[in-house]
């Protein structure tokens, strides 16, 4: 079977732990990453390693078995949060065949995430514009979907990287906007921006509107 | 004379200093703000007040005559850098009558700024997504231009605030993209994204292209 274009270039290491020691190592690492994600979401990355290991309930010594530095841990925390979200999007959009709908659905689901999983949303926002050049998480997936849309003749985009710049900027600033304006409907705002981006990518207005009004699959965010 | 819509809601305090003491105070404050902008651009905001006053070549004691805290100073540094840039854009776009061209010209000039004035560009990027909700600097000006475009029947935008989200996201991530990809032409990328945004706002493709190909006024960035 041919691997579908939209999962071709993004892989996540999911090899299972092999024995008890491996399982413990995996748990320790996961606890550190989880603690780091909580600290990033709280804007408290300026804490000593000791405090991180205490929050993760692991021994101070085990930190350096997994990470060379705090920066190393925080980078892993951002990468893994966005990889996990990206993998979920890949799974949810797998049944779709139209690259325009794949892009729109991923954007609409990610827009809703800002309210559904505020912690992950804050990790995304705090990681900031670095998102646009990351080879992990959302950017490579969005670029893949944009290129698939061009290849399929759905998008009339001259420069896929600039289309990615627009999409990454929109999803980042949408998150900030939704946090700053709790009265705004996250679903309506996400759908409107996805529709705006589709029009920017060359989809006719009424079709863009219809695509972004379709029902979404259930996202199980945790 | 009626004040043109596009300068109505954004004002900058420019009252001149009155005597020698006032002039000295103004100089001290300006030196602190300039030092803070340099530190922000370098990503070094985690420094003691003493270091900031030394970099500004002012007495440690005078800091608290002007700012209540470091955070207060850094916020002022961001606000004033973007207000100054915004005021320059207002002056440069003043001769234009088409709101679509006003928006495009401001975006194209700001895109070029990422290479022309890297220090201001880094202040903009580091201030991050907070840009989208700021009542200073670029966001209120962009919203004003977007609303003028809707009022003039040029833009078919359902939600001006979401159009601002898209524009703010695009200018932020464009900056990051240009810093990460020094081989990319900043002028071409800025013009392409401005054209993409105009199309998103409802301007026909060929007209958006033509508007974003027009010659730009000379921006004197410093």
UniProtKB/TrEMBL annotation, chains A, B:
Task: Identify the stretch annotated as signal peptide in this record.
Answer: none
- The question of whether Plastid is a record keyword is answered with no
Q: Which InterPro entries match?
A: Homeodomain-like_sf, HTH-type_TetR-like_transc_reg, HTH_TetR, TetR_C_40
Question: Taking every annotated instance into account, which residue ranges of this chain make up the domain HTH tetR-type?
Answer: 25-85
Q: Which species does this protein come from?
A: Antrihabitans stalactiti
Q: Where is this region: Disordered?
A: 1-24
Name of the protein = TetR/AcrR family transcriptional regulator
Q: Does the keyword DNA-binding apply?
A: yes
Q: What keywords were assigned to this record?
A: DNA-binding, Transcription, Transcription regulation
Q: Which residues bind DNA?
A: 48-67
Cited Pfam families: TetR_C_40 (PF21306), TetR_N (PF00440)
- Entry-linked PROSITE patterns: HTH_TETR_2
**GO MF annotations in UniProt:** DNA-binding transcription factor activity; transcription cis-regulatory region binding
Which PANTHER family does this entry report, sorted A to Z? HTH-TYPE TRANSCRIPTIONAL REGULATOR BETI (PTHR30055:SF234), HTH-TYPE TRANSCRIPTIONAL REGULATOR RUTR (PTHR30055)
């Amino acid at each position: 079977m041919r691997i579908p274009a939209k999962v071709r270039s993004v892989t996540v290491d999911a090899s299972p732990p092999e024995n008890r020691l491996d399982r413990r190592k995996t748990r320790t690492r996961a606890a550190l990453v989880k603690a780091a994600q909580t600290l990033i979401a709280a804007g408290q990355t300026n804490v000593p390693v000791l405090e991180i290991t205490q929050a993760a309930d692991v021994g101070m010594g085990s930190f350096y078995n997994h990470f060379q530095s705090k920066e190393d841990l925080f980078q892993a925390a951002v990468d893994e949060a966005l990889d996990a979200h990206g993998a979920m999007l890949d799974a949810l959009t797998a049944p779709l065949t139209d690259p325009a709908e794949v892009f729109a659905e991923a954007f609409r689901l990610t827009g809703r995430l800002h309210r559904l999983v505020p912690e992950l949303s804050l990790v995304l926002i705090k990681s900031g514009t670095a998102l646009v050049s990351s080879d992990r998480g959302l950017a490579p997936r969005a670029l893949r979907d944009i290129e698939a849309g061009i290849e399929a003749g759905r998008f009339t985009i001259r420069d896929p990287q600039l289309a990615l710049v627009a999409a990454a900027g929109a999803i980042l600033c949408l998150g900030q906007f939704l946090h700053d304006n709790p009265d705004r409907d996250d679903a309506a705002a996400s759908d409107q921006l996805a529709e705006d981006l589709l029009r920017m990518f060359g989809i006719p207005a009424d079709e863009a509107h219809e695509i972004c009004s379709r029902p979404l699959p259930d996202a199980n965010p945790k």
